[in-house]
Structure formats: C-alpha cells, structure tokens
Amino acid sequence: MAAQNIDDVVDGLAGIVREAERTGDRVGYFAALYRQVTVEIRTAIHEGLFDDGPRMDRFDTLFGNRYFDAYDAWRRDRSGPRCWRETFGLLDDADTVIVQHLVLGVNAHINLDLAVAAAGTDPGTDIQALRHDFLLINDILARVVLTVQDSVDALSPLLSLLDKVGGRTDERILDFSIRESRAEAWYNAVLLAGQNAAERAATIERLDTRATVLARLIARPDGIVRPALELIRHTESTDVPAVISHLDGATASTT
C-alpha cells in the first residue's frame, strides 16, 4: 500500500488493525497504537496547531509509508529493513509479551524511519524550519502513550513487576523511544538532510543496524528482567483479537 496523504495513512492502519483482529495477528498491537497517534496528529493539523499543516501532512505520509513498505516487504517475502524483520519475526513468538511487541514497533519506527521521513519532507530546503512542529509531536505521542499505558495495565496485570526489577515503570518502557530516541532522530534527520545519496545510504544502514541491536535487546533482555517477563506472560491476556480491540480503543478521540 502507498499513502498519498495522512487520511490514507489512517485508513491503511485501520485496515491492518481490522485484518489483524480477524486473523488474531499480533501485528495489530503496534498498528493500533500507531493509528491512534496518527489520528491525533491529523486532528492537530486540522486545528492549526502546527506551523505548517500541509508540511506535516507530507511528513506523516512519508513516515506512514515507511511502515507500510516494511509491512508489505515482510508479508511478501520476509524482506525489508533488518530492524523491522526482527520486529515482525516475533509476532508468532508466544513468549513475547504485549508491551514488548509495542516497544519493538516503536523502536523500529522511531530509531530508523523517523529521521528518514523528516529529512525527506522538504528536500533541498532548510530542515530547521521543521523543528518546531517535529518537537510538537512529542506532546501528542506522550498523551497517547499515557492512555495506552492504562490499556496495557488492564491487559497485563503484573506489568508493574518491570518497575521493580528493571527500575522502569510501564509508561517508561513504552516511552523509551519517544522521549530519548526522538531527540536522536532529529539529529540524524539534520545529518541526512545535508548528505549526498551515498552518504544517506550509509547513514540509513547505520540506523538500521543500531535499531536491530536494540530490537534484540528488547526481545531477549538480560538479567532479572527475563524471569519477570515470564511471570507477566503467564498472567496477561492471550486473546489476541481482544487485546487489539482494547488497545485500538484506548484513545476516545479516535473512535
């Protein structure tokens, strides 16, 4: 699929969510979260909250198409960026808990796709003009994450164990690639915007490599986090369609 505007992105994500609910595919977990973020961004565009609404529509469309391209490549022949292959490759792994699936998607989309989309929004222009609107998305993401956190808590009652054994709250787990990685994504976007084609390809390869390493750490954490995840797995919901529906309804404004 190829989106032409942010409405197409919302519709494409909604289609993935509906199909995932029908088939019981865990790909719907991150797609549900991502759909809600995109709806919130679209609302902010319509309300004139960004400096340049049409530019943000272009930005979000490029960003969404990065996800769709990775999703289509995986479905077609298990190809695509390595970090997305790591993420999609765990969809059938019953040992991977709900919050891990969410964070794996956030990691790949933020740590790889975001900088590429930002750099490509207005090629040949001053990328610094995008900075204010880029940062404004942080507030939207934080708001959606807080809401989805409540949904994950309801689905995974022992998730608070990760706070005790890992020094993180479940919000922090969901938020790790939003507050910290977005700052790095902006740095990389500026870098990409000033590079030639060969340099951009090398930078994108480096970003993919780093995101792949992070995906493996998220999927198979070391230390005492691993037994905590095992306990969480045994107590959280295993009804995939119900989990997708619950996550997709987390933000009232998206209904």
TrEMBL record:
Protein's name according to its UniProt entry: DUF5995 family protein
| Any Pfam family | DUF5995
What are the top taxonomic ranks of the organism?
A: Bacteria, Bacillati, Actinomycetota, Actinomycetes, Kitasatosporales
Q: Would you say which domain of life the source belongs to?
A: Bacteria
Which InterPro entries does this one have? DUF5995 (IPR046037)
